[in-house]
Amino acid sequence: MKTIRFLLPLLLGIVTTFCYARDNATYLKNNDLQVINAAIEHPDGSAYFFVGKYFHQYDTRAGKLKRMGLIGKDGWYGVPANVDAALIHPHNKKGYFFKGNNYYRYDFSKKKMDKKGIINYDGWKGLVGPIGAAIMHPTNNCAYFFKGKKYYRYSFSKRKMDKIGAIGIDAWKGFPVNINAAIMHSNGRAYGFKDDHYFRYVFGKKVDKKGIIGKDGWKLFHQLDAVVFNDRDRNNATRDEHYIINSLGMYCDDYNDNFVTREIAFLFNHPNVVRIHKKRFGDNWYSGVEPNIDAGFLHPKNGRYYFFKGDTYFRYNPSTKKVDKIAKIKDGFGVSKVAAAVGIPDSNNIYLFDGISYHLYDIKSNKIIASGSISSKFTGVPNWIDAAVQDPHGGIKFYKKDVVYVYSPKARKVTRWGMLQPGLFK
Known about the structure:
Elements: H1 2-22, E1 38-41, E2 47-51, E3 54-59, E4 64-70, E5 85-88, E6 95-99, E7 102-107, E8 112-118, E9 133-136, E10 142-147, E11 150-155, E12 160-166, E13 181-184, E14 190-194, E15 197-201, E16 207-212, E17 226-229, E18 241-245, E19 248-254, H2 259-268, E20 274-280, E21 295-298, E22 305-309, E23 312-317, E24 322-328, H3 329-333, E25 340-343, E26 349-354, E27 357-362, E28 367-373, H4 374-377, E29 387-390, E30 396-400, E31 403-408, E32 413-419
């Protein structure tokens, strides 16, 4: 055991460096490791979104995520990871995936790729990769490819590209430049996706709606409402975090409760290391707090839990197991809305987050003493985070979608990251 503890820092250093270096190129577009790469409308009626090496199956009618899987393992055999764009050919009804200067043809009946080609050499005349996004027009028998500030129209009747235009000027008014993905919805609208936002386009007109992915629609990822540090139950076989989503509260305990197991589980996302326990949030757990909260944190001084919802906060006393105060966020913290929050242990600091901004609340003076952009203060942390909590080993854990980012105050940057335990969402 002494040998393991001696070697562990070295092992973690190697693994941490590997994880950070390997995905440093992915730390683009808001530092978000789960930016949508491509989207396609499946013949089964589902929409599929491709994010790195994963695919997300989305039910457009129900408006919810159906499942996630690994490309080439759980489906989409032969399709590469990190594709650039995708669409279905209107004549042969096969799926086409574009990556760099290559395209991959997918046969839905055989459930696998049946051809790989070079763009503009043995198909897709006039098109040049890499491509940002692609979509089929519902009526004119043309596909539109988006790349930087321009769109390229490909005519299937002519079998070549027949028009180049400026996005938002010549057509596609309201669509952003450098778009990540696009897809047709069963409602007849086109949807474009860029970073944290989606854009709904009415053909022949313009974008009539802009929203935040997951918050205003397109719940394509698992997104926690809050994570609070569990400071009082360490001797009751629970782990350090309480995870909250909708009306569900969850905590984990370890089969072998020690530092080695936890760190290995975190870095390698090992599914068999922890057991997940679930309770009814606001009912038999944190009784009196309303479900579907926006954020929560453990106060570093008074030991109370604070939960935010809309413009209101609930203060929960773990000693009495009751909510002892309900008030307006503006009156208590000086801001109107909170999407994530964290109290820093052994300090007077509470960080409040919303969108692209952070606010530092000082407990002694009862006011905001600093504000700014998340990117300027927390290097490597993405915008529009879902939750934040203190790391028991120092630093802060930030949660966005299915990823947790560990920020080191000493290094002043994100030093490691990992996927959330998949069992949390089963």
